[in-house]
Amino acid sequence: MDFRETTQTSFDHDEYGQAHSWTNGSKSSRLTKRQGRDKTPDTGRMNLILRSLPTDLYNELLPSLKTVSLTKEQFLYQEGDRLDFIYFPITAVVSEFKMLEDGRMVEIAVTGKEGAIGLSSVFSESHTAPNCTQVSQAGTAKRLDVVAFEKMLRSDHRLRVGLSRFLDQYIRQISQKAICNMYHSVKERLCTWLLMVQDRSGRDMLNLTHEQIARTLGVYRPSITCIAQELRDEELIDYSRGGITIRDRAGVEDTACACYGELECVPARHAA
Asked: How many angstroms separate the CA atoms of 132 and 231, rounded?
């Protein structure tokens, strides 16, 4: 199935509710005036990469940033797709998957408001998605056209410098997850993953199913069902149809593998 068309639905409007066709200069002027009238909050700064940029650099990017809604289990890219946009999650959480030889998928990275989707491929100038990316937790993101991004990347070295820290964290996460997937138990990995998703979404209730978790961890659903029941019996989590709540975060952290300590470096959960 080709999921690419789903990424374009209802994404032609920015957070001000109108489609636009104008030059960057005139748009910036109108945008500033309209922001002054409507007092619309700027959600872009909720993404930690965008927040870290100098104010003048962020304001230069602002006219090209569009707020989009990402739906649960929506595929942003399939492996080998051309990258036309970079996504900076705000409330959404996105997983990156590698397809295994037996047809199963396993998550190699999870990104929320601390990062961006597609940034590493643009930096490497490959312009193609190395893996498939799927929305784990529905929410919003800022979408940036790759052409506009590359133009600014060439004209202002501060942007490249500012993004290098995220790329380091992204590579570190992939390396750590490779170790985790190979050596740690499913129970440990599940607890680590739940903590990471909560950190990046900032939500108490995670909109997850056992089937979705099984696909993410690359295991079979009965294993997740048994482990989830065990964690509920231990009063660490609770779950209902389509949702999981961490009841005892400290207990879940104790049950998680040591990888969580390595991947906890981004304080996304506390950066609302």
From this structure: 30
